[in-house]
């Protein structure tokens, strides 16, 4: 019996398989992966998400056609945004700690390899004495050179591996900070707002391809479809509230500003994702930026005010040039 389980916390897990039973071929074909730390097969990117019933159903069909009996235990319950983010922060911290420990082991291995290389070099004749062809020392001399060459390569490989492990550890250590940067927080707020608008279109009904001969009215969702949409709405509203609270805290701490059309205007400079831009126009929800201010060529990129992390007024820019 193969069992496919899904929870919001763990994701989609496949249990009951055995090495060599033929399930690996089916699972790989459907892009499932083996998790060494579980150990079990799992669906990538299924954690902190609702069950992907389409992909699960396809897998069940394929396994049954291959002669396996499959049971499903799918939990559609979702956790709060605060719980999800706390778990992600903890996983990031655990990963950073594990990678740092790995980096330390790699550095120790590199030091050992370098010491062995020095030992091999010390065994070579002083002054770079050439090999004496036909002398009784010839074979020993050649072996010493080969050993020194091999151990130098091992030392270089070990040092390269240590540097790579250190680099990955540093990236992992900064993962949470990047996730909670003001720019990323603003992006998550915008994403949640888009999802909420999309769900309300499903709940209220909408017109597709409006203004074209193919326009048609899509009625408001009813029955199970409406219930599902309402559950999605509650989830997205929870995410929106969470990230709005984070942004409010960042504004209070001075990590970003509370920008709007009221305090940003044409000719000002704004910092978006680490780059400064000159403002061509302040719109109700976004700013139009100059790609080339001298020629007054505007960019198609129009960030929302929440993505602005710094600001200089036109007066401040003029004063700085004096």
Chain-wise SSE layout:
Layout: E1 2-7, E2 11-15, H1 23-29, E3 33-35, E4 40-42, H2 53-65, E5 70-74, H3 81-122, H4 138-173, H5 175-179, H6 182-204, E6 206-208, E7 216-218, H7 223-252, E8 269-272, E9 275-282, E10 287-292, E11 297-298, E12 308-312, H8 314-321
Model description:
The protein is of the alpha+beta class. It has four domains: 2-74; 83-128 and 137-175; 180-252, no CATH class; 269-321. It contains eight helices and twelve strands. The protein has helices at 23-29, 53-65, 81-122, 138-173, 175-179, 182-204, 223-252, 314-321; strands at residues 2-7, 11-15, 33-35, 40-42, 70-74, 206-208, 216-218, 269-272, 275-282, 287-292, 297-298, 308-312. The strands form three sheets. It has a five-stranded mixed β-sheet with strand order 3-4-2-1-5, covered by helices on one side. It has a five-stranded antiparallel β-sheet with strand order 11-10-9-8-12. A two-stranded antiparallel sheet has the order 6-7. Helix 3 (81-122) runs antiparallel to helix 4 and helix 6 (182-204) packs antiparallel against helix 7. The longest helix is centred in the first third of the chain and has 42 residues, at 81-122. The N and C termini lie far apart (78 Å).
């Amino acid at each position: 019996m193969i069992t496919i389980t899904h929870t919001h916390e763990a994701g989609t897990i496949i249990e009951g398989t055995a090495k060599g039973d033929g399930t690996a071929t089916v699972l790989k074909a459907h892009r499932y992966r083996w998790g060494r730390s579980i150990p079990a097969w799992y669906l990538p990117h299924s954690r902190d998400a609702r069950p992907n019933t389409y992909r699960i159903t396809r897998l069940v069909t394929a396994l049954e056609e291959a002669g396996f009996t499959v049971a499903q235990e799918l939990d559609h319950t979702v956790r709060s945004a605060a719980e999800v983010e706390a778990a992600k922060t903890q996983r990031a911290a655990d990963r950073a700690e594990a990678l740092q420990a790995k980096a330390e082991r790699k550095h120790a291995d590199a030091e050992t390899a370098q010491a062995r290389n020095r030992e091999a070099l010390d065994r070579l004749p002083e002054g770079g004495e050439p090999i004496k062809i036909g002398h009784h020392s010839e074979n020993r001399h050649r072996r010493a050179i080969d050993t020194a060459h091999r151990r130098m390569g091992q030392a270089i490989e070990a040092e390269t591996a240590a540097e790579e492990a250190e680099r990955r550890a540093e990236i992992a250590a900064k993962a949470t900070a990047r996730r909670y940067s003001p720019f990323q927080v603003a992006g998550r707020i915008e994403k949640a707002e888009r999802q909420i608008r999309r769900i309300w279109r499903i709940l209220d009904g909408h017109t597709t391809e409006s203004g074209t001969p193919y326009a048609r009215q899509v009625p408001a969702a009813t029955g199970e479809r409406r219930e599902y949409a309402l559950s999605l709405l509650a989830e997205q509203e929870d995410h929106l509230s969470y990230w709005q609270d984070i942004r409010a805290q960042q504004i209070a701490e001075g990590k970003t500003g509370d920008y709007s059309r009221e305090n940003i205007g044409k000719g000002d400079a704004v910092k978006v994702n680490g780059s400064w831009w000159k403002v061509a126009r302040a719109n109700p929800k976004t700013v139009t930026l100059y790609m080339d201010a001298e020629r007054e060529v505007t960019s198609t990129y129009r960030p929302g005010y929440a993505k602005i992390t710094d600001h200089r007024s036109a007066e401040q820019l003029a004063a700085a040039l004096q």
